[in-house]
Amino acid sequence: MRCLAQAGQEFRLTPWRSLVLPLTLTDAPAVIASGLSKAGFILDPDAALMAIAACSGAPACDRASRPSQEDARNFAVSLPPPPYEKPLLHVSGCAKGCAHPRAAPITLVAREGRYDVVLRYTATAPPDHLGLTVADAQTFLTKFFKTKGI
Ligand code: SF4
Fold this sequence. Notes:
The protein is α/β, with parallel strands linked by helices. It folds into two domains: 2-38, no CATH class; 48-148, Sulfite Reductase Hemoprotein, domain 1. The protein contains four helices and seven strands. The chain has helices at 2-6, 30-38, 68-75, 134-148, and strands at 12-13, 19-20, 52-54, 89-92, 104-111, 114-121, 129-132. The strands form two sheets. A five-stranded mixed sheet has the order 3-4-5-6-7. β5 (104-111) and β6 form a beta hairpin. The N and C termini lie far apart (36 Å). The relative contact order is 0.12. The chain binds iron/sulfur cluster (SF4). Residues 55-57, 61, 63-64, 92-94, 96-98 line the site of iron/sulfur cluster.
């Protein structure tokens, strides 16, 4: 926001952790696009991260067992190419499921530093697979999206 303010760029905040700018990114001055990118905003509407719902996770939330947003960025490479049913993947720091209370094709629920996997339901549902390491969860996602053809 400091970058936008310094550039004199009008913007709106949304309740969905996003900003609305009254211009297209192709028309945006490089300093704005670069500032937003450095701040972690997703600028490409077809980016795989747009198909992932992730809560604030650790360290922002005391209940979180994993840094769900950081993990989500790593898991994004396992998603199939766009277009996406949104979200394809829900990464939750605990079973509360704040980021996406509805069903997703895959929900990863952090517990004691690992991930339980819920298929086609919500974070509160009984898991289909228990206690995957981040590396194992990554492998699971790659196989799931490759074989199920979502
Ligand atoms: S789902 Fe759990 S870890 Fe994530 S923000 Fe909600 S309470 Fe915190």
